[in-house]
Specification:
- This protein is mainly β.
- Helices cover 6% and strands 42% of the residues.
- It has one domain (8-278).
- The protein is elongated and about 85 Å long.
- It comes from Saccharicrinis fermentans DSM 9555 = JCM 21142.
Length: 279
């Protein structure tokens, strides 16, 4: 066995945080903090012996691209007529109502050499917003974060758009291609996959940007006159809600835009109550 160093990478990024504090006035004070960051990576050198461990093919190397690149086929809509099928490149399994793949190298056949770099799973921007407010004895804290400009390979597109034997199907199948619904972007229903439509392609790539309201907490601190009577230094009660809701693109089909792996359990929403006691 021979051990080799892997890729040489170039990493670049930035982080920025801005905060504004409003001193207490009329029993009200607040702090607003906004942060953002970006990270990019690029493989600059790759030993020939380990190239097969990275995305790419015999004609296209990952050198110059991100290690987190998505590599696959580019689609070109759905075949609507037999003439379109006949005029297209040699694509095993092609037919009316099936996905058409692009012949990128112009050799009149669809094969592994027609794959391309479809983007990276890294977002263009990661950001967060935190707001802390105090009014008299009440305090409130709100925190949310998200990503923008992210391309994600969404496996739930498959569960939504395709028939899978006896398994339940998603609502996308009701808009599948038929001779009466020729403008659909969802292929015709079929129990076989002669066209290999489960292959990695931009059909499964979606706008995976999202914003999550991750935490909201509301608290009340009792007056000193009350805590002295019960022999406590400080007493605060609060209600806290986690993972309240998120905003994602209409393209996203799954239960949690932060977790695109179907084997990962989505983060649940929760509400809790608590007491902070200082003796």
């Amino acid at each position: 066995m021979q051990w080799l160093n892997g890729a040489t990478k170039e990493n670049k990024g930035w982080e920025l945080a801005l905060s504004y504090y409003k001193a207490k006035e009329n029993d009200l004070s607040y702090t607003v903090t906004l942060s953002g960051s970006q990270f990019k990576d690029k493989i600059t050198e790759l030993p020939e012996e380990v190239r097969t461990a990275y995305p790419g093919n015999a004609e296209k190397s990952i050198v110059g691209h991100s290690q987190l690149s998505i590599f696959g086929y580019r689609t070109d809509g759905i075949f609507k007529t037999q003439q379109e099928v006949d005029e297209h490149a040699d694509q095993p399994g092609k037919g009316i109502g099936r996905i058409r793949y692009k012949d990128l190298n112009g050799d009149n056949k669809i094969d592994a050499l027609d794959q391309d770099f479809l983007g990276t799973t890294l977002p263009k921007l990661e950001y967060s917003l935190k707001i802390d407010v105090e009014y008299k004895n009440f305090d409130c804290s709100i925190f949310g974060s998200g990503v923008a400009g992210k391309t994600g390979y969404d496996p739930y597109v498959y569960f939504n758009d395709f028939v899978r034997g006896r398994d339940n199907v998603g609502p996308g199948v009701f808009d599948a291609w038929t001779p009466q619904n020729m403008d659909s972007s969802i292929p015709a229903l079929s129990l076989s996959d002669n066209n290999n439509e489960t292959r990695v392609s931009d059909y499964y790539n979606i706008n995976a940007s999202y914003f999550k309201l991750r935490n909201v907490q509301l608290g009340y601190t009792f007056n000193k006159s009350f805590t002295d009577k019960i022999k406590l230094e400080k007493l605060r009660v609060y209600c806290m809600a986690d993972n309240l809701f998120w905003i994602s693109s209409k393209e996203f089909k799954g239960p949690d835009p932060e977790r695109l792996d179907v084997n990962t359990i989505p983060i649940p929403s929760s509400i809790s109550f608590g007491v902070n006691v200082t003796l």
